[in-house]
Design goal:
- By secondary structure, this protein is an alpha/beta fold.
- Helix content is 26%, strand content 21%.
- Strands 1, 2, 3, 4, 5, 6, 7, 8, 9, 10 and 11 form an eleven-stranded mixed β-sheet that branches.
- Helix 2 packs across helix 5.
- The radius of gyration is 19 Å and the shape is globular.
Length: 300
Amino acid sequence: MSRRAVLGIIGGSGLYGIALENAEHVRVHTPWGEPSDDYLVGEVEGLKVVFLPRHGKGHRLSPTDINYRANIDGFKRLGVTDLVSLSACGSFREELSPGTFVLVDQFIDRTFARPKSFFGKGCVAHVSMARPVSPALVDRIEAACKAEGLRYHRGGTYLAMEGPQFSTLAESHMYRAWGCDVIGMTNMPEARLAREAEIKYATVAMVTDYDSWHEEHGEVDITAILQVMQQNADNAARLVRRLVADFPRVFEPCPAGSHMALEHAVITTPEARDPALLRKLDAVAGRVLNRDGGNGGAES
């Protein structure tokens, strides 16, 4: 029997809602705490869509304060198979000018104040992050960009910084020297956690500025960023509408193995697993933990 596709959308700065049929706001309580906000759950021509504003309504949460584990766990509990992340970013490349949508395929994680895994003491798992983005999902996003005539670039490395401050000039030059293409504050550990939850993940990094390295543009100007952000939000809404309209209703396996990322990742033997942690892992890792009989008393 074919598996149904369920598309999740994470709205970043400037994108706080989308239009759906039969829409309702759903509060999801997770063992990892509360998500950023209620999820907007609806459909478009038979495709179930789940939307979450990453920073909460009114942009209440800073990048560091977002509960990434709760957000991803909530998407998993709502059946999401494919997750598209939209977020504002700065650019390290002249050709990636403000207004460009970058479909990144790699990340460098410089965050340090956020839990980065669902796993830990009592149930250890090592998930491959070599290919953190699903190429099949990126194909769909690229097709939507082309159909809407949006300026985009496929491929690139996203540097995730802690924030909430922007980069120093020295940091900006260092990240450019590392070969990074864009910089943002929210896609890590989000991408890591989506991979652990076996959800296909892809990022649309929407360029708002040149960070601080660009001599002609100078330091980051929040007023200018907000102006570009509004135009990006309008284009993001167009992208999402097209993506949803054309998205397959039947689940497509990930060529990078995202939907099976936990297949051989859990190292802790069943008898050594912590029942309390296993109960928290019921949504994100239930496929493998229940299969191998390693619930360790999680039902008690």
